[in-house]
Design a protein that fits this description.
mainly alpha; single chain
Length: about 110
């Protein structure tokens, strides 16, 4: 559901987007949806329509984020990504072990 021209964003200097520049503001919308579902409305039909509009708004925001993510450059191939993931997992395990050792030290 890409719109022509308007949805494509680039960084200020004309280069491709980075992960830090992606705009993800979905939590307020999700919170509004949950609040509207939780409350006991007097006019159920109007509240249902409002909730439906909020869900559509959330869907539009998610589509916008998806289109921004598709613009991110892919720097690594699948094998390199898997290797990097394994390296990061090993680092995580080492750090967890160090934290556990630190917690168990008696002063």
């Amino acid at each position: 559901m890409d719109s022509v021209g308007g949805d494509k964003k680039e960084a200020k200097n004309g280069t491709a987007l980075t992960v830090d520049e992606i705009e993800i503001e979905i939590l307020p919308t999700i919170y509004a949806i949950i609040r509207s579902v939780e409350k006991d409305p007097v006019d159920k039909q109007r509240e249902s329509q409002d909730c439906s509009l909020k869900v559509l708004e959330l869907q539009k925001k998610l589509d916008s984020v998806r289109s921004q993510i598709r613009q991110l450059p892919i720097d690594l191939n699948k094998e390199e990504q898997l290797q990097r993931l394994e390296t990061l997992r090993n680092q995580l395990l080492l750090k967890q072990n160090l934290l556990n050792k630190y917690k168990n030290i008696q002063f």
